Structures are given as structure tokens and as C-alpha cells.
From TrEMBL:
This is Glycosyltransferase family 1 protein. Pfam families: Glyco_transf_4, Glycos_transf_1. Residues 203-367 form the Glycosyl transferase family domain. It comes from Corallococcus caeni. Keywords: Transferase. InterPro entries: Glyco_trans_1 (IPR001296), Glyco_trans_4-like_N (IPR028098).
């Protein structure tokens, strides 16, 4: 049995408005265009949902991931992935995004693929406790997570990560720097179009926006407390956009219920990218209040919401962390000390008092994203890594070689 093309497997829901799904689409379409057929295997929507429109060289295979908790869902997904793989030819490259799909592939790498790519956006040994606090006390589960991460790190022929902070952490855990490529996230500049900051309007409250995960490790509580502080002196509102399970919604309402009743805080479900971009333009400032914790400062991240906000031109107030400094200079976003609602409030007042500052940040931020963070640049970097580090022949090269051989 010969080899097939590229298998891109991900224990993520696709399609979805989350940043992970945006990232997946950009990468699989680039790989398909450069190298030929790509099979995308991810968690699908309800049975019968129409397939997403992808590039002509990408075939989507939605799989189930049912279960009462994350472990059960991961095991279900692995089972479906194994069944899908049965009888398939050996893959030229398998690209995984986590241990949940990556570990069983790493264990059987020799029989499944010529090359394994491990894309490290997050590590469950660090992140999982923020989603499921009970796991922090489960020593056996933590040992298994670390062991499976190590297996994937050492089996991978190429490691891809969006953050230099993450790369440094992976090297500290034994990853070979020669196999490691840092490829930051990107922005669809046609979706997140630029508009200068909204001019002030008499009687209109200043509108702040927070989008993303509604958890303490992302800093949403600091955004809420900053709103509460500002309302002592200014008419302000805060729009929160992101996914919320029932218990998380209750916890969020417990924290900001009074502000919701006052009309100062509105909570929205995740929005399609086009609607999210329009919402940015309807706000005066975007908050990215990442706190100091091991997820942000040890593991690292490349916050897509920061790049998207910078692209839209709405001034951004963001925590001054190493992962942020790699994406935004002080002339491109208003960087503040992390973990401080007071610092957020002071920055909002500074922007309100100095419209020229907001205008300068806005223009500089858009210019930075156009230069360094369009998705096309990330896609090109990934394709080059496949070609240069793994030796995968581009489709155009294979076609030319075949044509020469037959001439």
C-alpha cells in the first residue's frame, strides 16, 4: 500500500467561531494548496450539518467526541479516529494539535506516517487545571498528561508553536531546538478591516469590549472590576463575547450581576468573525487583560484576539507580558501592568483625555499587523517548514518533475 497525502487531525470543534478553528482553516488550506490532498479530521457539528467550504484540496472528516467529561470525550474521539484510519494508506505527514489525538499517533508513528508534526498551542499539563480545577489534585492524571506530552514532543519530526515563550518552555523540557519553528497566529485582513477610533459623542457612554474565554486565567474578572471602577466617574459599558457553559455563566453573573442589571455589562455568545469585526468598530476600546500565571508566562500563548483587535483599529489596552511584547510595541497598544483593574481604568481615562494617543495607537497597530501578522505570512512559514525541514515536495514541483519525466 502506498502513501497518501497529509492528515491534519485535531481534537477541536470545526467549524467554530473560536480562534482554534480559524487557525485550523488557515493552515489546512495552505497545506492543501502547496502540497496536494489534505484530510482534515476534527470534532464535527451535529450529524447532517453541511460541510464547511474549504480549499479544493482539503477533505473534511467530522468525528464524534461524546462523553460526560473531557477524558471520556478524548477517548471517544481517539476511538473514532482509529476507526476512520483503519485500512487507509500510510500518510506522508500527520499533523496534530494536541496529545488528545497526537499520543496514539505518536505511539504508532512508524506504521502510520513518514513524518509527524506536533503543533503546540497549549499543554494540558498546564492548561487543564484552569478549565477543570479538580485535575490539579489528581497526581495520576497529571503524570499521564506529562508522559503523553513527552511522547509527542520526542516523536515529532517538526514542532510548530505560535509563541517564542512556548518554544522556550518546550526546549526546557527536552525538545530539540533544530526541530522547532515559531509561527505566530495571523489575521484575515479582509474580515478585520481597519477603521479609525470612534470620535467621542455627547451623551454616549464609552463602550469597552472583551472577547474570548470568560475565565480568570484570561483576565475577564479584571475587565469587569475595571468597569465597576470607571462607573464611579464615567458613563461606560462593557460587552463580553465568548463561550459560557451553565456553571460558568452563573459564576460570571455572580461577579457582575449588578452591572448587568444596570445595563453596564452585556454578555454575548461567540460571534462569526464578520460580526465580531463589526462589533470592534462599534466599541471605543478593546481589553486584553491577561494576568500573570503559568499558562500565559510559562507555557506561553499568541492571543489571536489581540491581533484581531489591532487590525480593526480600535485602541487596545493589554497586559504588559512577554507574549504581548512579541506582538505589540508600546506605540501600538496601551500596555499596562497585569492583574490590575485600576491600571485598566487609568488607561481608559488616558485614552479618553487624549484622542490623539488613541489615533496613533490605532494607525500603528494596523500597520504592524499588515506587516507581520497577515495569515498569508503564517501560511507561508508553515509551507516552508514542511518543504525545508521535512522535505515535502510542493505540488508544482511534483507536477513539473512528472511532466519532464514523460517528455
Amino acid at each position: 500500500m502506498g502513501t497518501s497525502g497529509i492528515v491534519y487531525a485535531s481534537f477541536d470543534r470545526f467549524p467554530a467561531p473560536k480562534g482554534a478553528a480559524v487557525h485550523i482553516r488557515a493552515f489546512v488550506e495552505a497545506l492543501g494548496a502547496a502540497f496536494g490532498p489534505v484530510d482534515l479530521v476534527a470534532i464535527g457539528d451535529a450529524p447532517g450539518a453541511p460541510p464547511p467550504a474549504l480549499g479544493p484540496h482539503v477533505t473534511y472528516h467530522p468525528l464524534g467526541a461524546r462523553g460526560k467529561d473531557l477524558v471520556a470525550q478524548a477517548l471517544t474521539f481517539r476511538s473514532h479516529l482509529g476507526a476512520w484510519w483503519r485500512g487507509r494508506p500510510r500518510a506522508k505527514v500527520v499533523h496534530v494539535r494536541s496529545i488528545f489525538e497526537g499520543y496514539p499517533i505518536a505511539r504508532r508513528k512508524a506504521t502510520l506516517t513518514d513524518a509527524l508534526v506536533y503543533e503546540v498551542n497549549g499543554l494540558p499539563s498546564i492548561e487543564l487545571k484552569y478549565h477543570h480545577p479538580d485535575v490539579a489534585d489528581d497526581a495520576e492524571l497529571m503524570r499521564k498528561l506529562l508522559a503523553q506530552e513527552e511522547a509527542c514532543l520526542h516523536a515529532a519530526d517538526l514542532l510548530v508553536t505560535p509563541s517564542a515563550v512556548t518554544a522556550e518552555h518546550l526546549v526546557s523540557r527536552g525538545a530539540d531546538p533544530k526541530r522547532l519553528r515559531v509561527i505566530p497566529n495571523g489575521v484575515d485582513l479582509d474580515v478585520f478591516r481597519y477603521a479609525p477610533p470612534r470620535p467621542p459623542e455627547a451623551g454616549r457612554p464609552l463602550r469597552m469590549l472583551y472577547s474570548g474565554t470568560m475565565t480568570a486565567w484570561q483576565g475577564v474578572h479584571h475587565a469587569i472590576e475595571a468597569c465597576r471602577l470607571l462607573r464611579r466617574d464615567l458613563p461606560v459599558t462593557l460587552t463580553l463575547v465568548g463561550p459560557l457553559r451553565k456553571h460558568a455563566r452563573r459564576a460570571l453573573l455572580d461577579r457582575c450581576g449588578d452591572l448587568v442589571l444596570q445595563g453596564a455589562v452585556e454578555i454575548l455568545e461567540p460571534l462569526p468573525q464578520e460580526e465580531l469585526a463589526r462589533l470592534h468598530h462599534a466599541c471605543d476600546v478593546v481589553l486584553v487583560p491577561l494576568p500573570v500565571n503559568d499558562r500565559n508566562c510559562v507555557q506561553g500563548c499568541c492571543p489571536l484576539k489581540l491581533l484581531e483587535a489591532m487590525a480593526t483599529g480600535t485602541p487596545v489596552i493589554v497586559s504588559d507580558l512577554p507574549v504581548v511584547r512579541a506582538l505589540a510595541e508600546a506605540t501600538e497598544a496601551f500596555r499596562i501592568r497585569p492583574g490590575s483593574p485600576k491600571a485598566i481604568a487609568e488607561a481608559v481615562k488616558d485614552l479618553l483625555a487624549n484622542p490623539a494617543l488613541g489615533a496613533a495607537l490605532s494607525a500603528n497597530a494596523r500597520a504592524r499587523v499588515e506587516r507581520d501578522f497577515p495569515w498569508g505570512r503564517a501560511q507561508e512559514a508553515l509551507v516552508n517548514a514542511y518543504a525545508d525541514d521535512l522535505g515535502v515536495a510542493r505540488a508544482s514541483t511534483r507536477d513539473n518533475t512528472a511532466a519532464s519525466a514523460s517528455a
